[in-house]
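Quick one:
INPUT:
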């Protein structure tokens, strides 16, 4: 089988590995010279994604490139602890979520794809309509050209109400937790920080704004200090910041009505951008399940239909979770006050029940 993958990010590179492992002749086309993504942005891989990486032979390299994050803590703007739960895993799971630079994750996946025999061509944009192959995989992200060809009537992504600005602080200010993925529910969205093993702090300001900033790249540390001036922990981290490393707008995508035809299929953000700390993990799940269905169904059209039937319920359920997460990030002061009163009493009890199904994914042989 000759397969062409459009996009060499997380989804496309993982797909190249999985398809090569089942004997496909795989060529990956990436429009950008460097498919690793913006320098400085980081990604978390949950345990379901780590199990896929293990099946693809990449787990040790990814663990080496990043660091484990065992706990997730939720804080009010004033510093009150609202919840402390296992991060991206069930509490009893010895496998811990890994956070690493997105560029490093893509580099690991791309290197493995090349070792497995895939061809990766970067710096050239390919029109999916001109591709001749038994299988075409659209792994080209939320602005997917492949999706527009499959479904010309599909709506374009819309601004989500959040602008993400990321950076690194050289030193952890005194008094902060020494580890964990920490959320601060701030007056202007959410401020996230992760103390790293080298003593630095990785952080992201998810700024809530009804209208998108005209130029996210123009938002610097002074502007962030003003936005988060009422949150002491965020202020302390920003004062130690070396600068901003990545800035981008968040986008939403309405459910895609047509995700495949007889020879073309969408995976990852091209089909269902999910957020909720699961974007990379779900994209890699897609890649593995697609290869599994192609093995079980030698006829490509039947395999793509079976893949879609298997994946859509999971993606749809996760999309609803992401909607709730986003609503919490852009809520007003009344909701914030209710959250501070209720969350410490209920969050720990309901969190595993609400999220545990995500981490039970079995990659299968």
């Amino acid at each position: 089988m000759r397969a062409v993958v459009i996009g060499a990010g997380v989804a496309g590179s993982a797909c190249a590995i999985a398809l090569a492992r089942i004997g496909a002749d795989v060529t990956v086309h990436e429009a950008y010279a460097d498919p690793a993504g913006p320098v400085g942005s980081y990604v978390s891989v949950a345990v379901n994604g780590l199990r896929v990486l293990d099946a693809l032979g990449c787990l040790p390299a990814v663990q080496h490139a990043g660091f484990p994050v065992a706990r997730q803590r939720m804080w009010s703007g004033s510093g009150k602890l609202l919840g402390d739960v296992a991060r991206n895993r069930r509490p009893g799971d010895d496998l811990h979520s890994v956070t690493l630079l997105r560029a490093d994750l893509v580099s690991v996946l791309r290197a493995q794809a090349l070792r497995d025999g895939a061809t990766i061509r970067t710096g050239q944009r390919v029109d999916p309509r001109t591709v001749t192959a038994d299988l075409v995989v659209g792994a080209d992200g939320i602005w997917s050209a492949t999706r527009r060809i499959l479904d010309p009537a599909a709506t374009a992504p819309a601004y989500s109400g959040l602008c993400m600005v990321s950076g690194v602080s050289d030193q952890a200010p005194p008094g902060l937790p020494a580890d964990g993925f920490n959320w601060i529910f701030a007056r202007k969205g959410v401020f996230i920080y992760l103390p790293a093993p080298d003593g630095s702090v990785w952080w992201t300001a998810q700024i809530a704004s009804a209208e998108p900033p005209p130029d996210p790249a123009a938002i610097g540390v002074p502007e962030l200090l003003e936005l988060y001036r009422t949150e002491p922990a965020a202020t302390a981290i920003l004062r130690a910041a070396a600068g901003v490393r990545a800035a981008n707008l968040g986008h939403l995508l309405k459910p895609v009505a047509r995700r495949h035809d007889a020879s073309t299929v969408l995976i990852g953000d091209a089909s269902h951008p999910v957020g909720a700390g699961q974007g990379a993990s779900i994209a890699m799940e897609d890649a593995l399940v697609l290869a599994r269905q192609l093995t079980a169904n030698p006829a490509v059209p039947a395999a793509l239909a079976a893949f879609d039937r298997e994946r859509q319920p999971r993606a749809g359920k996760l999309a609803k979770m992401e909607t709730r997460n986003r609503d919490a990030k852009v809520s007003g002061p009344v909701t914030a006050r209710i959250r501070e009163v209720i969350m410490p009493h209920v969050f720990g009890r309901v969190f595993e029940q609400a999220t545990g199904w995500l981490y039970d994914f079995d990659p299968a042989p």
